[in-house]
Specification:
Structural class of chain A: alpha/beta
CATH superfamily of the largest domain in chain A: Aldolase class I
Number of strands of chain A: 16
Number of domains of chain A: 2
Order of helices and strands of chain B: EHHH
Low-confidence stretches of chain A: none
Largest interface: A-B, 34 and 20 residues
Number of helices of chain B: 3
Strand content of chain B: under 5%
Helix content of chain A: 25-40%
Distance between the termini of chain A: 41 Å
Mean pLDDT of chain B: 60
Number of strands of chain B: 1
Radius of gyration of chain A: 24 Å
CATH topology of the largest domain in chain A: TIM Barrel
CATH architecture of the largest domain in chain A: Alpha-Beta Barrel
Strand order of the largest sheet of chain A: 12-11-10-9-8-7-13-14-15-16
CATH class of the largest domain in chain A: Alpha Beta
Structural class of chain B: mainly alpha
Low-confidence stretches of chain B: 1-14, 38-64
Mean pLDDT of chain A: 92
Number of helices of chain A: 15
Oligomer: heterodimer
Strand content of chain A: 15-25%
Chain lengths: 478, 124
């Protein structure tokens, strides 16, 4: 029988432990030298004849057993095996678990790279003005909660994320939504989790008290120390925002710690010329007290000066590698580490996540505009071409299903031969829309970056696994 | 300790050359082991790689094709398959229950390969 090693990625530790990541199942298997040689021997596009290969093998019996195991585990399969049809979509209508409320489309900062108000905006209007209402009314916020609870199926827990613009410019709507959700969640017997992203300029004592009391998961958009923050994150007049936010963040950190709140996250937008990642990480965790830091390359159309560019991505990957060293050191000694990008990737690798869609947008997650229109996610609200209904009349299931069918990874022929497919699935819809004008296209401009980052994740996984396997117990259930 | 000639040797268990590392791999391996286990149960005390003759070595599912995607390796003739479902092995086929309701169903059939036609219908 002709057998062939399926789409996979090999990786190893410096101590000689061999592994394979199998793209069809997202399983990670450890291999002894014999099994390792078999995986390589059959990794030819045309495959090879198993009986003939075994006949010549000096350790025939052992090789046969190992080949049998590798075949059963889906690493090596018959070349003429028909691919099992993959379910295109889960049963629809898929229950909603997360609703992102854009409570305002105004902002008190004028960050030069912002996708919402800059050159890459999806909505009509000028400056920080959208086409819809500037602020979500308390009524719309409450209707959104009703919509979420109505469409959550039998999920025991739902999440509400507040977003903007600058979210805290409309604190009254946040308060109204939370108080209403507490009441209605109890009636529907669903736990409600809250999270919010803010630029930290409006974190007054009253706001901090409310957020920490309701155990918000808080993410602060911040690019680093004063020199980093003030490069792009400026007020309308051009002055930097660091001096304003630093004391407010310190107050938030202290309050959150006192109330044993959820992990406090910083989200850094990476642009050309940004400080090294490790430096920024250390500043944000050690100087400001954040628990986690996530880094995201700026979303930018072609030709934007702040975009990272190809060399920028290479540099970034090296810098991620440097910070990964710290992560490994912490993990080996049983400590957690707040490098959120890597932590999230390791969680997905450990669980063997195999995505049909790059994210939950349109599936378990929807965005709500200030006027109550539903979009695929917070980045698409008010974009008329990606509207999927409204909170009063519900989801336009036809539009939703059509989009998800087209956005399925199996429709992205560019992704067919990529080992990173189970984790990437083509990448961010909004990124693709900005780059190619089509949200369902694969983000080919950052394939190398994704593959490089997944490689970093795999080698990190192997290093931790061989030195402190118990570390991954934290990723078992969630 | 000296070896005893009467001792039954332990079944040969080759050491694992492939081991599951992440959670998904563990789930897969458990699935594979469960399937191997169900095939082993059809014969007595087999070594791990032995399968009863005629059975498919992979869960395809059932008896439709053998490990080479053909039908030659399957239980033959098909009549034997029917007879075997009655009392030598468990298979959820539509045959009479030989334990309580139709214990004498195959009494007239000494050699099923030849005289399976003597097995009559059962009217409950």
């Amino acid at each position: 029988m002709h057998l062939r090693t399926v789409l996979h990625r090999r990786f190893r530790t410096e101590t000689g432990h061999e592994f394979v990541y199998v793209a069809s199942s997202a399983a990670i298997l450890g291999l002894d030298p014999l099994a390792s040689s078999i995986v390589d021997a059959f990794a030819e596009p045309a495959g090879r004849d198993a009986e003939a290969w075994l006949a010549d093998h000096p350790e025939r019996a052992d090789a046969e057993t190992a080949l049998h195991d590798l075949t059963d585990l889906g690493v090596i399969r018959p070349t003429d095996e028909a691919q099992a049809p993959r379910a295109q979509l889960p049963p629809m209508p898929f229950p909603i678990s997360t609703l992102v409320l854009n409570v305002t489309n105004k902002c008190n900062l004028s960050c030069t790279y912002c996708y919402e108000y800059g050159d890459d905006r999806l909505t009509a209007g000028k400056g920080s003005e959208g086409t819809g209402k500037a602020r979500m009314s308390d009524d719309t916020a409450r209707q959104s909660i009703d919509f979420l609870l109505r469409n959550a199926g039998d999920r025991p827990q739902v999440s509400i994320t507040f977003f903007g613009g600058e979210t805290l410019l409309n604190f009254p709507a946040i308060r109204a939504a939370v108080l209403y959700a507490e009441e209605r969640g109890a009636v529907h017997r669903k736990r409600v989790h809250y999270s919010l992203t803010t630029n930290a300029t409006l974190l007054t004592d009253e706001v901090v008290d409310f957020l920490t009391t309701h155990r918000f998961g808080i993410t602060v958009s911040i690019d680093g120390d004063a020199s980093q923050q003030d490069r792009h994150r400026t007020f309308r007049g051009g002055s930097g925002s660091f001096a304003t936010i630093a004391p407010r963040i310190q107050h938030l950190v202290a309050q959150n710690k006192a109330k044993k709140g959820r992990a406090l996250g910083a989200r850094v937008t990476l642009t050309a010329g940004a400080a090294p990642v490790r430096e920024t990480y250390d500043f944000l965790t050690k100087e400001l007290g954040f628990d986690e830091v996530g880094f995201a390359p700026v979303t930018a159309g072609l030709g934007r000066t702040y975009a990272l560019g190809e060399q920028g991505y290479e540099k970034l990957l090296r810098e991620f590698g440097e910070l990964a060293e710290d992560y490994v050191a912490a993990a080996v000694s049983g400590q957690s580490h707040g490098f959120a990008n890597l932590g999230d990737l390791l969680r997905e690798l450990h669980q063997g996540i195999n995505k049909a869609h790059p994210c939950g947008a349109g599936l378990g997650l929807l965005g709500v505009s200030t006027e109550g229109e539903l979009g695929l996610c917070h980045r698409f609200v008010e974009s008329k071409s990606h509207a999927v209904g409204d909170v009063t009349n519900g989801i336009d299931e036809g539009v939703r299903t059509a989009f998800l069918t087209k956005a399925h990874v199996d429709q992205k022929t560019d992704c067919t031969q990529c080992f990173a497919r189970p984790l990437c699935a083509g990448g961010c819809y909004h990124e693709a829309h900005v780059r190619y004008g089509d949200a369902t296209r694969a983000n080919l401009h950052y394939c190398e970056w994704i593959r490089g980052f997944v490689d970093l994740g795999l080698s990190t996984y192997a290093r931790i696994l061989t030195q402190n396997p118990k570390f991954f117990a934290r990723f078992e259930s969630s | 300790m000296s070896s005893n000639a009467n001792e039954v040797p332990a079944p040969h268990r080759p050491r694992a050359r492939v081991f599951p590392a992440n959670r998904k791999a563990r789930q897969l391996a458990a699935l594979v082991l469960a399937q191997r286990g169900s095939a082993r149960a059809l014969t007595q005390d087999p070594p791990p790689t032995q399968y009863p003759y005629g059975c498919t070595t992979i869960f395809a599912p059932g008896w439709e094709v053998d490990s080479s995607n053909g039908t030659h390796g399957l239980c033959q003739p098909i009549e034997r398959d029917l007879y075997d479902c009655y009392h030598t092995c468990y298979w959820p086929a539509q045959v009479p229950d030989g334990v309580t309701n139709a214990p004498t169903w195959t009494q007239s059939c000494g050699a099923p390969m030849q005289d399976w036609k003597s097995i009559d219908l059962v009217f409950p």
